[in-house]
Structures are given as structure tokens and as C-alpha cells.
Design a protein that fits this description.
The chain is an alpha/beta fold.
Length: 338
């Protein structure tokens, strides 16, 4: 399923590309269906619990309570969770193509890193968010990223079913500032889609977009706590779901209130599943942007290194777009910055 290899253009490249069959595609679709369905059910879990009580479905009520307890009680990874995580990785088989690439050994959070014992911690900044962070979830389930704390919306993190799924399949965390600081003080490798709900709102099948111009906070934290930042771009994420366009100011204001403002449709046969487009997904993890340690960075210093990050993200997009789109189509592709 996976292999390390050398590449003259980038030095070290680690790729994964699963073998496919009709049976594997069905399995992958089932896992992805569970992932998205649990996402929806978790958000609506209070309503579901209320309805089970109203209709005297006490066995279902007890099951919801049991799953909620399992989501919140402390427990360690074990053989069962490792097997469950392997099942979750079957989502890769659903796509017609699926690959993730690390440009350099220094982009790895594992022992393959050239300075594994002395390296600075890594902050993986993943774009675009998309409707359901499918590129993010590919890395989340990767055995190469088991030590990385994948941070996402506190609303989702406290939702019991989705929280339990993520605890079983990977290493989840909260994306609020207090939690991020606590992880960083422990020098834990972190992954985060910095574009957030705004980037999800802007997703379009016709444009590659990143909501990054006003997202300086993660750079400030990286400077303060001694992190190098790895830009990550998930090519094909925007092709997995159609999303309604327009009314940007209104919808982005809803995002400021912590509300998603998307209306998406995926696979024609099952709209909550992503489209199986021919290009698939291609997740490129760039070379780390090396940052200095600045305990109290000024606005100017944060802006300076934020600009360097944007330049690194654009370089990543430009250098890998040909691998995804093909050389001819890639000539017309640009990454829009919002």
C-alpha cells in the first residue's frame, strides 16, 4: 500500500497509493459514508437523544449515553483501536486515485526525520478545508502521522459520536487557542486546517481557494513555541462536493459566529459521499518553513513570517499542480488567496 522512494526534484518522497478492486471501492465507500453520517449524527446528537426519549426508545437512549461515556472517559489505545484504525483507512480505496506525498524527510513526524531526536516540533497547516476535510482525514488516518495531534473545531470535538470515531481512528485535539497552547508547551506535533469554516464556505469545483490572508494566529503561536510550519495542499478536495456559490459577505459573517455556511452535494448515487472524479485526491506535504523562536513577536514579525508561509504555500501548489492536473491543464490553474 505504501512505499518510500527517492525523487531527484524533491529529495525524499513518501507516497501511498492503495490497490483497487470493486470490492475495495465498496468498502471504502462504506467507511466514508460512516465518517460523514457520524459527523451529521454527532452534531444532532442532543436532538436524537430527545427523540428517543419522546418515542420511548429507551434502548437507543441507553446506547447514546453509552457511546457518549465512551467518547469522554479516559482510555488508552489498545489492540481493538489499532484494528479499528486499519478499517478506517479503507476510505482510501473509494477514490479512483489517492496519494499523499512528503517532499522531504524533514516533513515527516516519524523516526524517518533526519534529526528525529533533536528536531523542532512540526505544525502541519492543511488546505483547503473543503466540505468535510477529506485530505485532512487521509493524513489523520495515516500510520505515518500517528504522533500528530490533529486539531479541529471545538464544536465537532465535543460532539460525542464524532469524538469517539476520531479517538478510535487517530489522535484528535481541539483547535481553540487554550488547547493549542497546551499541546505546544508539550512540543506535540500538530495538524490544523487554518482556513476553518471560512475556507469550507468558499469551496468551489471551479477554483482552488485558500482562506489565509487573515489567518495569522497559527504563525504567531509557531514563533512563540518553536515550531516549524509544513504547508499542505490537498489537490482534488474542492472536486469532491459541489457547493453553492455567492453571498460571500453574509456567509463569512455566519462563519464568524461559529456556524458553517455551506450547502453541498456529492456523489449522484449518495449525495453525502464525495464524487469519485477521475483525478482523485493528491495530498502534498511541503518542505517545512523554518521559523525562529520569538517569545513575544511583534505584528511586523508575525506578518513577515506569515508572508513567507504564503509564499511557501504558493510554491507548493505551483510545483505539484502538474502532478495532479497534468502539465497542460496545470498551466491555467492558480491558487486564489482570500
Amino acid at each position: 500500500m505504501s512505499r518510500p522512494n527517492s525523487d531527484g526534484a524533491y529529495g525524499f518522497v513518501y507516497t501511498t497509493e492503495p490497490k483497487r478492486s470493486n470490492f475495495n471501492t465498496i468498502l471504502g465507500g462504506f467507511v466514508l459514508f460512516l465518517f460523514v453520517a457520524i459527523w451529521f449524527a454527532s452534531i444532532g446528537s442532543p436532538v436524537l437523544f430527545y427523540l428517543t426519549i419522546q418515542h420511548k426508545q429507551y434502548m437507543l437512549s441507553a446506547l447514546i449515553i453509552l457511546l457518549t461515556l465512551a467518547a469522554y472517559l479516559p482510555w488508552e489505545k489498545n489492540e481493538f483501536t489499532l484494528r479499528f484504525a486499519k478499517i478506517a483507512r479503507l476510505n482510501l480505496f473509494f477514490y479512483k486515485k489517492c496519494k499523499y506525498v512528503f517532499e522531504k524527510k524533514a516533513s515527516l513526524a516519524t523516526s524517518d526525520h533526519p534529526n528525529a531526536s533533536t528536531r523542532k516540533p512540526l505544525f502541519y497547516a492543511i488546505h483547503p478545508h473543503g466540505a468535510f476535510c477529506l485530505g485532512w482525514s487521509i493524513l489523520f488516518n495515516s500510520p505515518r502521522m500517528l504522533s500528530v495531534k490533529f486539531c479541529f473545531s471545538p464544536i465537532l470535538y465535543i460532539s460525542p459520536f464524532f469524538r469517539l470515531w476520531c479517538r478510535l481512528t487517530g489522535n484528535p485535539g481541539r483547535a481553540d487557542k487554550k488547547s493549542m497552547v497546551s499541546y505546544m508547551k508539550k512540543k506535540i506535533d500538530i495538524a490544523l486546517p487554518p482556513g476553518g469554516f471560512e475556507e469550507a464556505t468558499l469551496t468551489s469545483t471551479y477554483h482552488d481557494r485558500a482562506y489565509i490572508k487573515k489567518r495569522l494566529g497559527f504563525i504567531k503561536l509557531a514563533l512563540q513555541y518553536g515550531y516549524d510550519v509544513v504547508p499542505v495542499y490537498s489537490f482534488g478536495e474542492n472536486l469532491t462536493y459541489w457547493n453553492i456559490q455567492g453571498l460571500w459577505k453574509f456567509r463569512l459573517k455566519l462563519n464568524n459566529l461559529g456556524l458553517p455556511a455551506i450547502f453541498v452535494v456529492g456523489n449522484p448515487l449518495c449525495p453525502i459521499l464525495p464524487k469519485r472524479h477521475d483525478l482523485g485526491l493528491y495530498v502534498a506535504c511541503g518542505e517545512p518553513l523554518v521559523l525562529p523562536i520569538i517569545e513575544n513577536p511583534s505584528r511586523e514579525e508575525v506578518k513577515l513570517y506569515h508572508d513567507k508561509y504564503i509564499a511557501a504555500l504558493l510554491r507548493l501548489f505551483e510545483e505539484h499542480k502538474g502532478n495532479f492536473f497534468g502539465e497542460e491543464e496545470a498551466k491555467t490553474k492558480k491558487l486564489e488567496l482570500w
